[in-house]
Amino acid sequence: MVLDSSKDLAPAEPTGIWSWITTVDHKRIGLLYGVTALIAFFVAGLEALLLRLQLTTANGTVLSADAYNQLFTMHGLTMLLVVVMPVGAAFMNYFIPLHIGARDVAFPRANAFSYWLFLFSTIMLLSSFVLGGAPDGGWFGYAPLSTQLDEFVRMDYYAIGAQLLGIASIMASANFIATVFTMRAPGMNLMRIPVFTWMAVVVSFLLIFSLPIFGVGLFQMFFDRNFGTQFFGGGGDPLLWQHLFWLFGHPEVYVLILPAMGIVSEVIPVFSRKPLFGYPFVVFSGIAIGFMGFGVWAHHMYTAGLGPVAEAGFGVATMMIAVPTGVKIFNWIGTMWGGKVRFELPMMFAIGFVSLFVIGGLSGVLHSVVPSDYQQHDSYFVVAHFHYVLFGGGVFGYVAGAYYWFPKWTGRFLDQRLGQWHFWLMLLGFNLTFAPMHILGLNGMARRTYRYPEGLGWEFWNQVATVGSFIIGISFLIFAWNLIKSRKHGVAAGSDPWDGRTLEWSIPSPPPVHNFDEIPHVEHVDDFWHRKYATDEEGRAVRMPDVTGGTIAPETTTGGESEGGGHEDDMHMPSPSYYPIVAAFGIIITGYGFVYLPGGWVAVGVGALVTLWGFFGWSLEPVTRDEHHD
Amino acid sequence: MTSPAVETHEHHDIRPIRKAAMWVFLGSECMFFGSMIATFLLYRNNTADGPGAEIFDIPFTSASSFVLLMSSLTMVLAHNAFEKRDARGTRIWLLATALLGTTFLAGQIYEFTEFVHKGLTLSTSSFGSSFYMLTGFHGAHVAIGVLMLLAMFYLSLDGRLYEDRGLNVELVGLYWHFVDIVWIVIFTVVYLLQV
Prior knowledge:
A: mainly alpha; Cytochrome C Oxidase, Chain A; 64% helix; disordered C terminus; B: mainly alpha; Four Helix Bundle (Hemerythrin (Met), subunit A); 74% helix
């Protein structure tokens, strides 16, 4: 009877496309982020395959130089800003509130706005291919290449598109920080929140402080192109762009990798049946990486001629940043050490992450040594390095997260057999593609060039890399098929399939709209584990009898009254709102207008009005409407 | 049996949460203005034989800076009246703040026009580019602040200021003070430091 009544009170899950457009539910927004990013991943992957086809043979003829420039620029831009960052945002959206025992993020409508702005900016960036040409100055957009006006709109798309993606990210980050710092369940102090959520906080701070710097650089590039300013050209200094860009760009690489590290820190303890070894060390290492990430940007600029003092300083700082990263590697190994390791799919991808990230991390340390970097700069060695950390590290970590949490999203497992194929093909294809690039780079092959002459001994390894890249492509087609198939027909998983440790496993799969029937009281790190297991005299975990299948026994819910001491037993969920999508749409009209200046001023004006309407409607509408009265 | 969810309409107090987010946003703004100030410092002497810092009219800009700083005082009074639920006082001081902000903006427009007449434009030199970008973005922030103040004023007319909404007087106040503080830095670095 008790459960029935609480079911009636809980808001029902709305359906239909309008409910997705106006949704403010963090779980739905998380899924939207994930699906969008996965589609963008296939687009950016296709771009990469075209690049690989071009480079398979000497003097390749698949692509023109112009097409190659557009594709390699968009591959980088899309993968970093439209795939990996949003995949991180997808996991953060879905799991921050569940990890800290909250019903939603702090600002549900701002959250929806972040997503819509991200989606529209993505569409805008990709639309550039057919509307005058895609950006072709590299994802790094170095001046003066980026400020030359031979091509009318291309780098304007870059300047505006990246700016808007940045605005979306800043809003999302402020939202996550406010959520974690003010909405934790009772007892959930900062040293009890799951490591993934900790890393989300660090990432949010990195974005908050680094994106505005990039924003200023993008404005300057845009002004140089359209209003005749002299920031990077004329009397200005093109190196200013590099400083502003890498002051953002280096923290950005930690933005890409830290959420994956967080996911791995969740997965490894669950599949080793041990708590994370040295939880505070992992957390503080993450924070240290965040701080130090702001002090190493010039290691991207060693060959720009900064002088020996600056280069030595940045070299030492770069070596230092390997220390907290190394600490984490040892913590993960220490967690597996002596544990009952189960080689389920999430664990396999997590171990893949740790191994490949170590390789990428070590070649990164080579780059920190200035004379050594002089040799490797702008060669394929660098390409090999950052694909080992971002793909071998990042993507393996996020895929581990997808296998780990898919049962929570859908209530079903991803298919085992397809998953095995995916893992082994991806591991093989990845190493075939990127390991040879170390050799190519050391043999002098330059990156960012669309073809190379015969007779330099580069053909063989390039062919190997191309074969590898297609194997990666096949592995991800299998993954996509697995996602589609298992969503409806996978093996039913129940609420706690992995014997999990954190709060998201204490609620049904998929979670109800309001997440928690009752806001939990937290007493430990890995609180859910401690509710399931007691420790005997010899320190072994003993399952407690009164907990069944991961859901808390109904007896603990007494009457309609919450035991939460009045902490938010109010089950009002924020009302759906269409203002976020209106505001985001207005901004994107403005964005298109700016790209096509001076004719675009009309669109700028119209877009600004739509944006104002969206924002004012949003600021002035009540958060929850009084529609729950019976 | 009914649950408190239906009986009461007490909301979890969301104001501290909003405040936290506003502080985070202002942290982000610090980096935004910091980057532009750094750019200006880099190009301070890069005038390409065009006009440089000598065209600044220090007495005039000091007066408009004073106006902007006074608007912080009226903002404090507005917030104080808001906390005391003094509707009339809130209304008056909100409007006074918006007026002072508008006065500052008018001064900036006058100043820009003067400089353009004297030959300093966005494209004259790197000095001109970075000067107009920095002060222009600050002006845009003041303008957005004025819009938010007017929205608060509009809400106060029929007593809706105390309902739970995305924006409230306290948040607008935080933003407004931040924009003022940034101006103190800009005024010092751009106008007063002419070494």
